[in-house]
Inverse folding.
């Protein structure tokens, strides 16, 4: 088509018909512009199709990751609720005058409070989507926002876990290392094992710790951490469910 117009312009120029020449020249320019605009539109459509495909692929992977993380939080909630219940039992018998068979009971109750907090959610898909731009391609503003909220909340949970674990390492464990036998505690908690027998070195009496103000304060602190992180796990679980539901709607 452009060659056709060019041939006509050449003929008009040779015939000295400048008025018609400029009309055909303008027509040729318009055709070129239309062609460019059409090519750009096709390219935009193609890019949009690719971006939509990336967004959908990200959402599928994100849904799978959320399913695993919801199960992980469910499991961790049950463990932490059990741990908190055990901690409260220990607090209840601190200062109790009834010392009957107290050593093995204390062994087990204390041992549980030595456990650290490690939720360890899988964030690989979210991190990848944030780095390669797939997350930003999600059309739903509310879905994008709730995913960002989940990431922010999980960072807060990890920081709280870090503080609680550091307190355990710096204060609680050093206290127990001088007054408590971890092997006996492990046996009392998990049950007797033919390969692991009770310590022959430890000669202490666990009930003495029940009359120690420092021990009571340390256990009270563990309980505070238990309940604080338990509440954070519950809030995170709720947000995970909300994110999963929004993914299904979009």
């Amino acid at each position: 088509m452009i060659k056709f117009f060019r041939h006509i312009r050449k003929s008009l120029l040779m015939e000295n018909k400048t008025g018609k020449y400029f009309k055909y020249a303008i027509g040729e320019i318009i055709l070129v512009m239309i062609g460019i605009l059409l090519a750009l539109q096709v390219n935009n459509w193609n890019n949009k199709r690719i971006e939509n495909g990336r967004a959908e692929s990200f959402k599928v992977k994100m849904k799978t990751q959320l399913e695993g993380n919801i199960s992980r939080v469910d499991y961790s909630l049950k463990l932490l609720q059990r741990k908190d219940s055990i901690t409260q039992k220990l607090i209840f018998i601190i200062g109790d005058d009834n010392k009957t068979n107290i050593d093995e009971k204390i062994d087990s109750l204390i041992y549980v409070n030595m456990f650290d907090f490690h939720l360890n959610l899988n964030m690989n898909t979210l991190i990848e989507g944030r780095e390669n731009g797939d997350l930003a391609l999600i059309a739903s503003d509310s879905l994008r926002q709730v995913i960002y909220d989940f990431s922010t909340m999980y960072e807060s949970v990890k920081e709280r876990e870090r503080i609680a674990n550091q307190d355990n390492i710096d204060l609680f464990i050093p206290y127990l290392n001088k007054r408590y036998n971890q092997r006996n505690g492990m046996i009392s908690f998990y049950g007797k094992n033919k390969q692991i027998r009770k310590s022959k070195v430890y000669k202490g009496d666990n009930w003495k710790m029940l009359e120690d103000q420092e021990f009571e304060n340390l256990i009270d602190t563990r309980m505070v951490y238990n309940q604080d992180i338990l509440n954070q796990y519950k809030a995170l679980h709720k947000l995970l469910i909300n994110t999963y539901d929004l993914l299904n709607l979009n």
